[in-house]
């Protein structure tokens, strides 16, 4: 990806320490630096994130309805920030009106906070935030943001809140303790130090953390260009300092490493696999560990689409996708889509159970091939929640065959991730919609649920079904590749 970096002598735009900056530096210093010191292109927000933001705004508006005579919101005020801060202070000092998204600006102009709601119970000031998280009291980042508000309220208005509330995604109000003064001060120093660095930090986080970041392409494309050892799933971020201490920074360094130089234990064991994978990367080939065990007989390609809210969702699994493939016959995909609401959830589950039982009755040796542990996990959860015929869960667990586990045990590939969205394209498979993915799927379902237009709903559901079909065919492509390319013999 191309990037535009300001010339060395360019004047940097003013930076402020915000609640977001505090979370970013605790999570990834590099992201904070990039956001403030370069014009590195950010990836467009995934549709799933857009949907979550819409839901977060709806949730905040619902919390706002709890207050009377509410002043604000001032978040999108068009004038200077100083005007919003002055108005917020005036309301705090001269009135008892609750304030929605005011501004607290430090005297030096370096720190700013936009608390969700400031309100009064008698002479006690209450800070209230709206968050979709169900356990906000367990989130260290929320505690840090509350400490930011606490510190700025005292500096700007001399006020100490009596309580900090967070209204969670289920509408429950939980009392949450802010981070300690010492923790807050240390993170503020870390932000200042990061923003003062003249060069871009180079550390990478684990792929699973980075892939949702808007700077993912920038950082990981650079890492791939430089052949960094952090590219390998076998190299855990916590172990990187051990490698660096031995002068191992690149894949080329890694392939010459004697793993016995590393401390005995997990890091040494992982290094032996990492060395094999590094060779595969350098030569752009598969590195085989052992032949794959692929059962014979009828196969059922099996993939579920689930809501990111999990069991809290109205339809935790909104699409049950499968395709029966008999020897010598082409499979035909089937999609059981849940109608909106609890009745639709139960009806879809019962249809899936009936179909799975029919397949196993007719083909007792059939294997339901899935990717990772998601599918068997949700079969158990649905059986507990909605019931199932005697022996159904045991029967399905025996029939389930985890294709990703087969891949993990038998081969290493030159890939950043072993998700099906990375593995199948390396083997030549492409999704019809390149923008589709699990989070895209959740966004499509939520939009289908929310629209009043039946034609639009049908279009969105059709796109979901097509994506799920492609997931089934992607597993089939991986299976075929393994069968065709695996080394022969024991």
Describe this structure in words.
About 45% of the residues lie in helices and about 10% in strands. The chain is of the alpha+beta class and about 500 residues long. The chain folds into three domains: about 20-195, Lambda Exonuclease, Chain A (Alpha-Beta Complex); about 225-285, DNA polymerase, domain 1 (Orthogonal Bundle), CATH 1.10.150; about 300-485, Nucleotidyltransferase, domain 5 (2-Layer Sandwich). It starts with 18 loop residues before the first helix and ends in a 5-residue tail after the last helix.
Q: For the record, what CATH class of the largest domain applies?
A: Alpha Beta
The shape is globular
| Share in β-strands | 5-15%
Strand order of the largest sheet: 1-4-5-6-7
Biggest sheet statistics: 5 strands, mixed
| Helix count from the secondary structure assignment | 18
- The structural class is alpha+beta
Binned, the helix content reads: 40-55%
Q: Rounded to an integer, what's the Rg over CA atoms?
A: 27 Å
Kindly report the CATH topology of the largest domain. Nucleotidyltransferase, domain 5
- As for the number of domains, it is 3
Low-confidence stretches: 1-13
Mean pLDDT: 90
CATH architectural category of the largest domain: 2-Layer Sandwich
Instruction: Give the total of beta strands.
Output: 14
Termini Cα gap: 44 Å
């Amino acid at each position: 990806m191309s990037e535009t970096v300001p010339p060395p002598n360019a004047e940097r735009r003013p930076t402020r320490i915000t609640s977001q900056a505090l979370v970013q530096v605790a999570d990834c210093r590099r992201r904070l630096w990039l956001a403030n010191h370069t014009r590195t292109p950010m990836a467009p927000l995934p549709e799933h994130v857009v949907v979550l933001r819409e839901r977060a705004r709806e949730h905040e508006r619902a919390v706002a309805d709890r207050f009377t005579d509410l002043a604000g919101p001032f978040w999108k005020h068009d004038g200077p920030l100083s005007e919003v801060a002055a108005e917020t202070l005036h309301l705090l000092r001269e009135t008892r009106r609750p304030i929605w998204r005011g501004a607290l600006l430090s005297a030096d102009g370096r720190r700013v906070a936009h608390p969700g709601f400031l309100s009064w119970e008698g002479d006690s000031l209450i800070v209230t935030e709206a968050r979709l998280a169900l356990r906000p009291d367990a989130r260290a980042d929320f505690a840090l943001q509350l400490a930011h508000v606490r510190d700025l309220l005292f500096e700007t208005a001399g006020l100490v809140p009596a309580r900090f509330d967070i209204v969670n995604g289920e509408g429950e109000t939980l009392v949450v303790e802010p981070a300690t003064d010492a923790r807050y001060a240390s993170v503020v120093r870390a932000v200042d130090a990061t923003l003062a660095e003249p060069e871009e930090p180079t550390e990478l986080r684990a792929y699973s953390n980075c892939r949702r970041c808007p700077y993912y392409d920038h950082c990981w494309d650079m890492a791939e260009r430089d052949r960094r050892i952090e590219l390998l799933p076998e190299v855990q971020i916590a172990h990187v300092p051990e490698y660096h201490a031995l002068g191992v920074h690149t894949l080329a360094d890694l392939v010459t490493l004697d793993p016995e130089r590393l401390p005995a234990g997990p890091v040494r064991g992982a290094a032996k696999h990492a060395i094999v994978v590094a060779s595969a990367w350098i030569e752009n080939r598969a590195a085989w560990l052992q032949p794959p065990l692929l059962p014979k007989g009828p196969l059922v390609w099996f993939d579920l689409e689930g809501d990111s809210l999990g069991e809290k969702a109205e339809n935790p699994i909104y699409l049950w996708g499968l395709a029966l493939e008999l020897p010598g016959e082409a499979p035909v995909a089937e999609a059981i889509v849940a109608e909106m609401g609890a009745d639709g959830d139960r009806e879809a589950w019962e249809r899936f159970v009936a179909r799975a039982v029919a397949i196993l009755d007719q083909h007792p040796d059939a294997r339901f091939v899935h990717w990772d542990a998601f599918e068997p996990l949700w079969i158990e959860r649905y059986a507990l929640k909605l019931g199932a015929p005697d022996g159904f869960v045991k029967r399905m667990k025996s029939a389930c065959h985890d294709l990703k586990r087969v891949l993990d045990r038998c081969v290493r590939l030159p890939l950043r991730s072993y998700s099906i969205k990375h593995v199948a394209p390396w083997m030549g498979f492409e999704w019809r919609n390149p923008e589709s993915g699990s989070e895209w799927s959740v966004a499509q379902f939520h939009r289908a649920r929310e629209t009043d237009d039946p034609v639009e709903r049908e279009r969105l559901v059709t796109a979901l079904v097509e994506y799920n079909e492609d997931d089934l065919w992607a597993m089939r492509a991986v299976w075929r590749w393994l069968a065709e390319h695996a080394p022969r013999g024991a």
